[in-house]
Structures are given as structure tokens and as C-alpha cells.
Design a protein that fits this description.
By secondary structure, this protein is mostly helical. 70% of the residues lie in helices and 0% in strands. The chain has helices spanning 2-18, 35-39, 42-53, 59-74, 80-106. Helix 4 (59-74) runs antiparallel to helix 5.
Length: 110
């Protein structure tokens, strides 16, 4: 039964390739950074993944996302004033993230 699905899927992929449906896809994407998820204790990973897929992120995950976006913005050509503003926001996000992580470490039951 799976052979039928595999064959059908392969035929549709080949047909889509012939029709050029894959021609305008982006050539490169960003690699997925799983460092954050790997650093979470196993017992909460599934819960966090469900929240993420539902559009809700834990605060530290949102901060990591913000840090990444702000870092990316710093690489773009913008005015000196905008660069200062972005750098300040980045510094604040990093500080908040570090404080949050430290607070969670200290509140862990031993």
C-alpha cells in the first residue's frame, strides 16, 4: 500500500518539476538552530514545542528570536541613529535573556 503512495507522490513531484513549479523556490534557507531546544530538559520539550506550534513562545525563546532579528538588522545599512537604537534594543534583549536564564537556574529544585 505504501508503494502505491510513494509511486503516486514521485509521479506528482516529477510532473511538478516538468511544469516548473519548483523553479521559483528560494535557493537557500536559514539552517534551523536547534541549540535552544536541545538545551531544554526533556520533560518540557514537548510542551514548549506544542506552545510554539500554537503561536506561543516561552519568554526566553521569544527573546532569542528577538536577539537574532536585531542582530540581523545590525548587518543592514541603516542610519547611524538607527544603528544606535537597534544596538540598544539588542543589548537590552540580551540582558533580559541572561537574567531570565539565571533566574530559572536559581529557581530549579535540586
Amino acid at each position: 500500500m505504501f508503494d502505491i503512495f510513494n509511486e503516486l507522490a514521485e509521479k506528482r513531484i516529477q510532473e511538478a518539476m516538468r511544469n516548473g513549479e519548483f523553479d521559483n523556490l528560494p535557493s537557500q534557507g536559514k539552517p534551523i538552530d536547534l541549540t535552544y531546544w536541545a538545551s531544554l530538559p526533556e520533560e518540557i520539550r514537548a510542551g514548549y514545542m506544542l506552545l510554539k506550534n500554537g503561536g506561543f513562545l516561552p519568554e526566553e525563546a521569544q527573546l532569542l528570536k528577538d536577539i537574532d532579528e536585531l542582530s540581523e538588522q545590525l548587518t543592514q545599512r541603516v542610519s547611524q541613529e538607527a544603528t544606535k537604537t537597534i544596538a540598544k534594543k539588542l543589548e537590552e534583549a540580551r540582558l533580559k535573556y541572561n537574567l531570565l536564564v539565571e533566574l530559572k537556574k536559581r529557581s530549579k529544585p535540586y
